[in-house]
Design goal:
Layout: E1 2-11, E2 17-26, E3 33-38, H1 44-58
Antiparallel strand pairs: 1-2, 2-3
Length: 66
Amino acid sequence: MQVDFGELRVKNTDGKFIKIYAIAFVLSHSRYKYVEWQETPFTTRDVLRCHENAFEYYEGITEEIV
């Protein structure tokens, strides 16, 4: 599984630009994807929670995380 972070500027419902942050998980063989977005930068606690959510979504834990 490959894990990457990203950020994007988008308009909110008030028409103002805000920055949102993403963490994306991609399984190497099947290319299945799982992404979580949030309005604040990721903390270590956020990253661990997102990994656990991704494992639950994939119904298992990968052998290797890159």
